[in-house]
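Quick one: structure for this chain?
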Amino acid sequence: MKKHYFIRHAHRPLDDWSRGVSITDEGKIAARAFGQVLKSEGIEGIWSSPVRRCKQTADGLIVGMEKVLPVVECDLLGGLAMIKNYGSVQEVFQQFSCEEIVDQLLEGKELEGFYSAEVGCKKMLECLLEKNCSSVSVSHDLFIGLLACQIFKKSCAPNMLPNFLEPLILIVNNNEVFAQYREFYSKVDLLN
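Got it. Here's what it folds into:
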């Protein structure tokens, strides 16, 4: 059995959404503490969005797990699984909240620069499951929340977006994939 933890980065300043923003001191402590929790999970690989706060979170997890692992940057975790054109999505991010973007994609609306929810989630899921070991992938609330909504067939009420360091866990057992997110647990059928 393999587990893949798809987690949101650690705490960042709430008023700064820039790509270069660092995690806070609270975020550094929380990432190390979550790494301690993951210590017994047999994590053999860590992937991260190329965004600074995600890479810093991954580094903190490694310190907490007391392991020597490289952090592998993965553009798909930075949004390339969901985003076709970064230039176009900037306007969407300025116009809509994260919840509104997720809901519109789930409703089948086309948003400039984004893949459809179905296409983007399938690409993201394939990226997460191609790892041949128990792993952690650090990304962003929009992508984790959208994938959780697709898997569990939920709309994106604000309570479906992950908090800092909150995981969507994918469990692979005998070629079957199951997902766990908060109180939800389900077999994953998005790859069919």
